[in-house]
Structures are given as structure tokens and as C-alpha cells.
Amino acid sequence: MTGPRRSQGPLLSFTKMHGLGNDFMVVDAISQPFRLRPDMIRKLADRHFGVGFDQLLVVEPPGLPDVDFRYRIFNADGSEVEQCGNGARCFARFVRDQRLTNRRVIRVQTAGGVIELRIGREGWVTVNMGVPELNPAAIPFAADSRQVVYPIDVNGQLLDLSAVSMGNPHGVLLVDDVDTAPVASLGPALERHPRFPARANIGFLQVIDRGRARLRVFERGSGETLACGSGACAAVVAGHLRGLLDNRVRITVPGGDLVIEWQGEGAPVMMEGPTARVFDGQIRLPAESPQRRRGRRQTVRSHDRRP
Ligand SMILES: N[C@@H](CCC[C@H](N)C(=O)O)C(=O)O
């Protein structure tokens, strides 16, 4: 006996990639139409019932002059975000591999501003992540004035936290040992702390010496990941401002090593690291219900160009 036939939605081509284990589903929305809905992204992100990823990266035509692409980033919970450092490296490798560009230096529009990516040898990419934002209102972080370290109350526990925006908001805590750091408890509590009105990524930084550090990051909208590029940049900025780190730091995250350079106040942060292409796939998306099709005018289509 067969049940009622459910009509099928479009077949979506994608590439699975990762940067040090921070994994992505990358979709070329220049060559194929792709309609975004947070509930669909959550299903695709599911590691048991979907493709499984920390972030979905969508490649679109640019909406600004003098940029090559627009790059949109969605966390596993379906929220759209401004910045993803590991994703930016994978994005650069993807657009070259797919022959969407033959440039080695690519300018990309993100929701956090325009960033520049430089493709090196053997899948390595250097990203100019822009100038870190330290003004609390712009991070956004609730504080009366800018400080290097803010005392913050988390469920009655007083902690010292640095707050940095790399286009996306980060809080950084200094720890003695990342292996025993309370990432699973403090991560979610600080991600949604009322002083971070847009939520935040929370880094746990262990300084080894002035040029080496270890880091674990509880990411906003995705949980702890094996690597967070923007988190590594924010941690080096925080460590440097605290007088603990030099301008060039090798930072070890659970998935491997990144090299971060920051010359100080007013300078952009440079991040260098590897990329990996895991497999190409296709997935049948669910069909849109007639109600959804009617309400479609309210959804965001990746082919819509926005300035
Ligand atoms: N994995 C990323 C950051 C992705 C976005 C982040 N979870 C946020 O919500 O801001 C990276 O490599 O930077």
C-alpha cells in the first residue's frame, strides 16, 4: 500500500567543506536558485537527519561596485550572521574551484562589511578580517565606557571578560587550561547574557607564551565548534590589549592551528589557515506548501540583490 504522494521540491547542489573542522555546507546561489528559510536551514544542519554543518555559506552575486561576490552566512540554528573567518577561507577556495572567478585576491561583501581574501598554495587562504571594533555600543555590549576587561556577573559568579567585534560579537575569557575550561556551562550562559543584546561567540583563551595560545569557542547559534576563525582573531586582539600576546600568534584550536597577525589599534587583523573540500552532494529540498508559496513575498531569496 502506498501513502499519499508528497510533491518533491528542487534538487540542490552543494559542497561540504571545512576549515580546521569548523564545517560548512557551501551553496552556489549564482548558478542555481536557492530560497532561504530558517526552518529548512535547521533541518539541513542536523547531523543525524540532514547534511550536518556548523554554518551554511551562500555564494551570491555582489550588490556593491568593486566587489566580486556577496557571501551570506547562516548558523546551524538558522540565524543569519555577519562574519565567519573559517568560512571566508572555504568560500575563497570554493569560488576558485567552481571557476566562478580566476582571481587570487577576492573582495567579498558580507553582512559585516567588505573583506579581502588572498588564495595561497595548497588550499591555504589569508583573510583580511578588517579592523576590530572595541567600542561597546558597536559590538554590541552593554557598558558605560570602553575597557580592556569588563567585570561581568554570570549567575552570581564575577568574571573578567574582554569584548570585541570582528564584524560579529565576541566575548573572551582568560583560562589556565582550555581542556578543563567550563565551556559547556559558561558558553551558553554568556552567549545569551543580557549584556550581549545580539548574543555573542564566547572564547576561552589559554596563553602559552607571547607567540602561542590555545582556544576553545562556544559559537553563537552553533555551540562549541572545532575552530572559530573570527573567535581566534578576537582572542588575539584581547590577549594583545591585555599585554599578554605579541603581534603574530599561532593559535591552536581543537581542529588545528591558525596564524593571526594584528599590529594593534586601528590595524586590520590578518588570519591565515587551511581549507578542505570533503565532498560534493545533491539534496532534494522539501516542496513548498501552497500557503508558503502565497507568503513567499515575505521570505528572502538569495537571488534578490540588496545594496
Ligand atoms: N565559525 C565562524 C563564526 C561563525 C558565526 C558565528 N557563530 C556568529 O554567530 O557570529 C568563524 O570561523 O569565524
How is this structure best described in words?
The protein is α+β, with helices and mostly antiparallel strands and 307 residues long. It has 2 domains: 127 residues, Roll (Diaminopimelate Epimerase, Chain A, domain 1), CATH 3.10.310; 132 residues, Roll (Diaminopimelate Epimerase, Chain A, domain 1), CATH 3.10.310. Helix content is 16%, strand content 40%. It has 5 helices and 20 strands. The protein has an 18-stranded mixed sheet that branches. Strand 14 and strand 15 form a beta hairpin. It starts with 7 loop residues before the first strand and ends in a 6-residue tail after the last strand. The C terminus is likely disordered. The ligand N[C@@H](CCC[C@H](N)C(=O)O)C(=O)O binds next to helix 2 and helix 4. Keywords: Amino-acid biosynthesis, Cytoplasm, Isomerase, Lysine biosynthesis. InterPro entries: DAP_epimerase_AS, DAP_epimerase_DapF.
What is this structure, in a nutshell?
The chain is of the alpha+beta class and 307 residues long.
Strand coverage percent: 35-45%
The main pleated sheet reads as: 18 strands, mixed
Q: Give the CATH topology of the largest domain.
A: Diaminopimelate Epimerase, Chain A, domain 1
Structural class: alpha+beta
* CATH class category name of the largest domain: Alpha Beta
Series of H and E elements? EEEHEEEHEEEEEEHEEEHEEEEHE
Count of beta strands: 20
Provide the domain count. Answer: 2
- The helix count comes to 5
Q: Fraction of residues in helices? A: 10-25%
Bound molecules: the ligand N[C@@H](CCC[C@H](N)C(=O)O)C(=O)O
Going by CATH, the homologous superfamily of the largest domain would be Diaminopimelate Epimerase, Chain A, domain 1
Question: What is the radius of gyration computed over CA atoms, rounded to a whole number of angstroms?
Answer: 20 Å
Categorize the overall geometry: globular
**Nearest-integer average pLDDT:** 92
